[in-house]
Each structure stands twice: as structure tokens, then as C-alpha cells.
Write a structure and sequence with these properties.
Globin-like; Globin/Proto; Hemoglobin_trunc; binds protoporphyrin IX containing FE; iron; metal ion binding; heme
Length: 156
């Protein structure tokens, strides 16, 4: 395959990501374990997370350019939150459930990369949430996530 699409292109467009996180945070706000953590956040929170993940997957840089975010700012949001493994697992479970419900691409290659990123990102969030100061420099670049070992999209 000559032009390998980014994970963002393979998944769809910005609406794909915004819909995924919109439905996800609807669930989070009804969840016994996670509700408290998220109940006072602004309505923009879900859009920011959608933009962040879309940008990491190779989409337009809306988190950086529209939301005035950066990798360091995102890391900073988790500092001191004292997230637990139980909460991380619930966050993952609800997002994967939502992905199926909204019909996010479900081919093995895409889901492998998607889950790989979520495992990485959520575990880092838990680690950083135990800290009292942000360890990341402001100028650190955003992460880029690709297809990984599967090397590309599913080809029938
Ligand atoms: C891949 C994993 C994750 C990504 C990409 C991510 C992304 C983000 C981003 C971009 C923000 C900032 C939103 C804004 O600017 O409004 C944020 C904030 C937040 N995240 Fe995460 N997050 C992840 C995992 C988690 C997990 C596992 C939890 C909890 C179980 C969590 C809890 C929070 C909370 C509570 C905030 C808001 C903090 C505040 O503004 O007071 N995150 N996250």
C-alpha cells in the first residue's frame, strides 16, 4: 500500500472523534465510579479530549491551534488527581463500549492501534496524577500515534 492513511483518516473525520467522546462523557457522567471526577468540568472538556486524540492520530491540530493546548497542558490537567487503576479501567471500558456503540471502525488493525494508544495514555495519566508538579516542559511536542506492529489498515 503506497499511501498509508493516518489513524485519523482511517477512522473518519473530526465528527467521528467528537461523537465518540460526546457519547463517552455522557456515560461517564452517569457512572457511579467516574461521575464525581468529571461532574464539574466545562462542556468544552469533551471536545478538547476529542481534539487531542484526533491530533495524536494525525488529524488537524485543533487541540494545539484552536483549544490553545499542548501535550504539557494535557499532562498538567491530570497532576494531583490521584487517579486509581480501578478508575482507569472503568474509563477504558466505557470508551471501548462507546466505540462499539457509535460504530467506530472495528477492523483488527485499527482497534489494535486504538487500544494500544489508550493503554499507553491512560497509564501515563494515572502515573502523572500521583505527582504534584508537571514533569513535562511546555515546548514538548504532541505525541503521534501510528499503526504500530500491524503496519497498516486492514486489507481484505
Ligand atoms: C488516553 C488517555 C487520556 C487522554 C488522551 C486524556 C486527555 C485529556 C485532556 C486533553 C484533558 C484536558 C481537557 C481540557 O483542556 O479541557 C484531560 C483532562 C482530564 N482528564 Fe484526561 N485523558 C486521558 C485519560 C484520563 C483518565 C484515565 C482519567 C480518569 C480516570 C482522566 C481524567 C481527567 C480529568 C478529571 C480531567 C480534567 C481535569 C481538570 O480540568 O480539572 N483522564 N484529559
Amino acid at each position: 500500500m503506497k499511501n498509508i492513511p493516518t489513524l485519523f483518516e482511517w477512522a473518519g473525520d473530526m465528527t467521528t472523534f467528537e461523537t465518540l467522546f460526546d457519547k463517552f462523557y455522557d456515560k461517564v457522567l452517569k457512572d457511579d465510579l467516574l461521575q464525581e471526577l468529571f461532574q464539574n468540568l466545562s462542556p468544552e472538556h469533551r471536545k478538547h479530549v476529542a481534539h487531542f486524540v484526533a491530533e495524536v492520530f494525525g488529524g488537524d491540530k485543533l487541540y494545539t491551534n484552536l483549544d490553545n493546548g499542548s501535550h504539557s497542558k494535557m499532562i498538567g490537567k491530570h497532576i494531583g488527581k490521584m487517579l486509581t487503576e480501578e478508575k482507569r479501567k472503568r474509563w477504558m471500558a466505557l470508551l471501548i463500549e462507546t466505540a462499539d456503540e457509535v460504530g467506530l471502525k472495528s477492523d483488527p488493525e485499527f482497534r489494535s492501534a486504538f487500544i494500544g494508544y489508550l493503554e499507553w495514555g491512560t497509564r501515563i495519566a494515572v502515573i502523572n496524577s500521583q505527582l504534584t508538579q508537571n514533569p513535562m516542559q511546555q515546548e514538548e511536542p504532541m505525541p503521534n500515534w501510528g499503526w504500530g506492529e500491524t503496519k497498516g489498515p486492514y486489507l481484505p
